[in-house]
């Protein structure tokens, strides 16, 4: 894709002003890092607070009668019991039990607010339009900006600028005025840290970002550190750790299947997914700790001690907070228990690794 | 002693028939924080432009190609425990390996410092 055809977010000029190294991601021109570099940005987020532009993600509003029940026909999450001001992680599944996308759903008084992945958003909208009943109104807000403020000091910044936001607990959402700008704020994120995602109108995004960056705790963070932070937090990246060929059960996302939904089904691929929930799967997503210093990256082949293929790595790299390489991937379920010794073929060389529990760095969510 | 440069952003410095090889400051800046370096085995025969080492940043792994043919006679084992030396001192303590040149004449086609500087400016 040539530079001329790339989409941009409302913060593009600010990224350039801040010295962002711009790369293509999901059709958008996005900063992979700023001059501080991925390592410093990652560590700063875990120590203080980082500001991420995630405006490339898709924001959608669903409203109308029985909208929660309607959405439940496409996802295995418990949406109907979601109270106003509460948020949930869920998945669009297909008839084969595969994952079309993962998403966040926040319930507000008169609508559901969805955030979907940038790379899937066009097909997600087509999917929603094709399957939701005529009574459900779908408002696509792709032009709207989304900022993430993440890290232990995020609450201090929010407390200063938008106290109503700081009163939220993990997976809560509200309309919040931040420095005079009305935003939709949720206490969630993709780093394993406490923090907020802030949805704001396109024409107010830069003013809001500048206000947040003016706070002494906050530094801008690119997509590179976003990836290393979520990997250490054990969180899936769509298109890598989960996709249409992986089921939620194989991906170890059993917790995302609502209790009532386990009994009732009624979502695409329910027969397959609920059977796997009961009887297990042949393979499972696990954390992997390489024993040496060499990072084990996506598509690295995994074998057992005898050299028999058992799976592959789907995300892997260096964890700056861990201080060493970390990875996740799929292995035969027989070898999926924590502590199992496995072998990874890195550039043809067999290197030792272990199945490890995730997250690699403890989650520090504010559960109230 | 003369320093030569390749279009793949390696440098080499020749002393007698042995060349010390590293990556340039431009290369380390492009890579970002180096977190792992895989060095060749001493005694390995490398070809000009062939794979010789691997350097990894947080984000990605990159090959380091040998700027000339020869035999690896020494490696900078310090990089295994302190890979960030490649960022801190790419043209000095961050060297990768030493090569006994099998055909010193190959070096004639490489760039000198001024030539490399112009090459990098052309990439901007």
TrEMBL record, chain A:
GO biological process, alphabetically ordered: glycine catabolic process
GO cellular component terms attached to this protein's record: glycine cleavage complex
One Gene Ontology term of the molecular function aspect: aminomethyltransferase activity
EC number of this enzyme: 2.1.2.10
Domain of life: Bacteria
Domain Aminomethyltransferase C-terminal: 283-360
Record gene name: gcvT
Transit peptide listed as a keyword: yes
Organism: Oceanibaculum pacificum
Keyword set includes Transmembrane: no
Entry protein name: aminomethyltransferase
Start and end residues of each GCVT N-terminal domain: 13-259
Residues bound to substrate: 197
Enzyme class: transferase
Reactions accelerated catalytically: N(6)-[(R)-S(8)-aminomethyldihydrolipoyl]-L-lysyl-[protein] + (6S)-5,6,7,8-tetrahydrofolate = N(6)-[(R)-dihydrolipoyl]-L-lysyl-[protein] + (6R)-5,10-methylene-5,6,7,8-tetrahydrofolate + NH4(+)
Pfam family, one: GCV_T
Entry keywords, A to Z: Aminotransferase, Transferase, Transit peptide
InterPro entries: GcvT, GcvT/YgfZ/DmdA, GcvT/YgfZ_C, GcvT_C, GCVT_N, TrmE/GcvT-like
UniProt similarity note: Belongs to the GcvT family.
TrEMBL record, chain B:
Presence of keyword Cytoplasm: no
A Gene Ontology term for the protein's cellular component: cytosol
Record-annotated Lipoyl-binding domain positions: 18-100
Protein family per UniProt: Belongs to the GcvH family.
NCBIfam families per UniProt: gcvH, PRK01202.1
Name under which the protein is recorded: Glycine cleavage system H protein
Quaternary structure annotation from Swiss-Prot or TrEMBL: The glycine cleavage system is composed of four proteins: P, T, L and H.
Cofactor binding annotation: Binds 1 lipoyl cofactor covalently.
Highest taxon listed in the record's lineage: Bacteria
Native source species: Oceanibaculum pacificum
Keyword Cytoplasm included in the entry's annotation: no
One Pfam family matching this protein: GCV_H
Positions of modified residues (N6-lipoyllysine): 59
UniProt function note: The glycine cleavage system catalyzes the degradation of glycine. The H protein shuttles the methylamine group of glycine from the P protein to the T protein.
GO biological process: glycine decarboxylation via glycine cleavage system; protein lipoylation
